[in-house]
Every structure is written in structure tokens, then in C-alpha cells.
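Attaching the record inline, Q. Sequence:
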Amino acid sequence: MTRSELREEVRFNLKRTSDALSDSRINTWLNWSLQFIADLHTYEEMRKVYTTTTTADQKSYSFPTRMKDIYTLRLISGASSRKLTYIYPREFDTKIPYPEQNSKRKSSYYVDYGTHFELYPIPDNSYTLELRCSLYPSSMSSDTDTPDLLRKDALIVAVATVFGFWSLREVEDASYWGGEIVPTLYQASLASDHSAEDWIPIARPYRTTTSTLQGEWWKNPFTGRRL
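Structure, as predicted:
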């Protein structure tokens, strides 16, 4: 669905005409809905592969805009490649407080810090970097835009409806949509990722937390969830 179609669904749920509630407010709630849903779960359509190149003698590089998580970073040189090893910033600064004084060559490590990362050793030439990461969905800026999150129109509308009722201080309706509608649609959305059946399971340690909605989050959509 396009932004205008999604907006009309939200408006129908809120029972407000354009005279009482502007399109721009609902557009904002729709974009908030996208970001909120992406906070809860990293869907397969959010996973991307980016390719860039290093610059000789340059240590620091920027991550893609809207990046959520990094999975792997590879350095490729001709027919050879290596997965760069992540090292904690504090450990790196303790062991290598001044990387510029060491010789420059193909990098083997990277330090993830904020919106950028640093390579070590500092590259001595131009090499290809291949980054596996996830991105937050982009905001819808025009009425013809469609969400980056696929097959989740009902969930996007439902969460935006909660934002709307919450903003209008209609707590009972926000409670109904947040407690009855959103969790069901959210749980169904988790099955939208492909199952990766071509995979042999390997025993791993137990994980005690699950990706779910917790508490009466619709009273404050920015708290009360456990990932």
C-alpha cells in the first residue's frame, strides 16, 4: 500500500476527518510506526550488503545511513579476502594507543564506534570492503511511497493507530489496539521471514529472552518492550 492508502486506513480507525486531524500528523505516526516495528525485529528485507573501498592512509570510515546492526565486514584484495575481526574500542585503545605509528598494510581488525568504524592496520592501498548489515526503513516522504517493510501493511496501520489514539489521549482505544490487535499482527509478521530450510541445526546455548511485546506499552510506545 502507498502512504496515502495507509493513511486512509489509520484515519478510518481513528474516526477523524481531515478537518479534525491533518494528513501530516498521520504521516508522522506512519513513519514512527515503521521505526518502532524495526526496533522490535530485524526483518529479512532490512538485511543488506554494501560494497565500498578503502583509501590509502585513511583510518576511519562511515557506516551506511540508517544502519541498525553490523554482521560481518570483509576486506577483498584481488582474488583473496579476509573477514575482519571486531575488537572492542577500549581494548584497542589500550593495546594500540597510536595506530598511526605502525606500518600500513592490509587491515585485519576493525573498531565499531558510533556511526563510523576504524581499520587496523591502517590500509596502505585501495581495497574493497564488503559489509553485511541491517538498515532501518526509510521514512515515507510522499503519498506514492510504499514502506520498506514488506507485507506488513496491517501491522504498520495498527501501530500508527495506537500512536494516534495515544496522541489524542483516548487511552481505552489505544489499550484495545495495543493489547489486542498489534501483538497478533506482530507475531504473524515474524513468520514472514523465509525459514532457511537448507540448514543443518547445531546445538547452541539456550537463550532466555524472546522477541516480544511486554507490558502495557501502548500507554507509552517507547517503553515496556523486551527484545
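The mean pLDDT is 91. The longest strand covers residues 67-77.

More tomorrow.
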